[in-house]
Design goal:
By secondary structure, the chain is of the alpha/beta class. It is built from 15 helices and ten strands. The strands form two sheets. A six-stranded mixed beta sheet has the order 1-2-10-7-8-9, with helices on both faces. A four-stranded parallel beta sheet has the order 5-4-3-6. It is globular. The protein starts with a helix and ends with a helix.
């Protein structure tokens, strides 16, 4: 049985001595070598598959720390705004901690798998007639007005928990990769990875990728009505904007955008070529590598090793998967018919 990440990395985490450990045995996610992507990119590429966390996304890393600290401080309720993954994670850890959970999601803009998780875990789910950025603004005001703990990535304990992905990667490889490719939505995850690398004394190049219809860091200004098939990164005004840009600058990296078509092509390719099924937003990191390669600053060597962060599981968004996948082949219950269907 894997050791919960708080127990493995507690000396690196700002928890109080008496805080309980609210855990679902998150962390210890696979770091998968990707031979076909390595060949296409011209470097050794590894996939950090965060979809193997308990609720199917990287959010569990931060949620275990944030909810443990909230529970230790006596919180009786937690709340978040979400495009889906934070909602699922918040709801699950609220249930585990025995506290009330509430999530605010953009109406009609959350993948069905994520909505199902939040509801099944017993959270109060409110569908807002607005986008994620509006939802986050409202929950921040609610947290200031009521005795409820906000567990979005503006919560510093979320960032502290998520940095453990960098620790695990360094521990498994024996050192940091020379580069990291990561999807960017609210920008908390890239901030976390950079914090983890820095704490380990490492400084890989960071390549961040946003969806073209929701690329405020690329455009240099907030996007009022962000749109992309990659719902997890459909965010127009990232909460960790400044920290993320500082990380890209300090690492000699950059942030770029990829189109929805490029995201969906990478999403299908990594599943059918490498056997790893991630959600569309996760595939932005693969799409970015395929579209932009590994650019470096003047005089720098091209990275020879890259970790590509896959932030969530493909089952989070079954509708997109079925829309992209080949059709099911119908067949009569007859040996000859099945042989023909299989082998022709």
């Amino acid at each position: 049985m894997p050791t919960p990440l708080i127990e493995r990395y507690r000396k690196h985490l700002p928890l109080e001595e008496g805080d309980p450990v609210v855990t679902l045995n998150e962390g210890s996610t696979p770091l998968i070598h990707s031979p076909r992507l390595s060949e296409r990119v011209g470097a050794e590429v590894y996939l950090k598959f965060e979809g193997a966390n308990p609720t199917g996304s990287f959010k569990d890393r931060g949620m275990t720390v944030a909810v443990s600290r909230a529970k230790g401080a006596g919180a009786e309720a937690i709340i978040c705004a979400s495009t889906g993954n934070t909602a699922a994670s918040c709801a699950a850890y609220a249930a585990r901690a025995g506290v009330r959970g509430a999530v605010i999601v953009p109406e009609g803009k959350i993948a069905i798998g994520k909505l199902a998780q939040a509801l099944m875990h017993g959270a109060r789910v409110i569908a807002l007639e607005g986008n994620f950025d509006q939802a986050l603004e409202i929950v921040r005001e609610l947290a200031n007005k009521h005795p409820v703990e906000l567990v979005n990535s503006v919560n510093p304990y979320r960032i502290e928990g998520q940095k453990t992905a960098a620790f695990e990667t360094c521990d498994e490889l024996g050192q940091a990769p020379e580069a990291l490719a990561i999807p960017v939505g609210n920008a908390g995850n890239v901030t976390s990875w950079w914090a983890g690398f820095q704490e380990y004394g490492e400084s890989p190049i960071l390549y961040g990728f946003q969806a073209a219809g929701a690329a405020p860091l690329v455009e240099g200004h907030p996007i009022e009505n962000p749109e992309t098939v990659a719902s997890a990164i459909r965010i127009g005004n990232p909460a960790r904007w400044e920290e993320a840009m500082n990380a890209f600058t300090a690492s000699r990296g950059r942030v770029a955008s990829v189109s929805d078509d490029q995201i969906l092509e990478a999403y299908h390719w990594v599943a059918s070529s490498e056997g790893v099924f991630c959600e569309p937003a996760s595939a932005a990191s693969v799409a970015g590598l395929l579209a932009h390669g590994l650019p470096v600053a003047d005089g720098a060597d091209k990275p020879e090793s890259v970790v590509c962060v896959l932030t969530g599981h493909g089952l989070k968004d079954p509708d997109t998967a079925l829309g992209k996948a080949p059709a099911v082949t119908g067949c009569k219950a007859d040996l000859g018919a099945v042989e023909k269907a299989v082998f022709d």
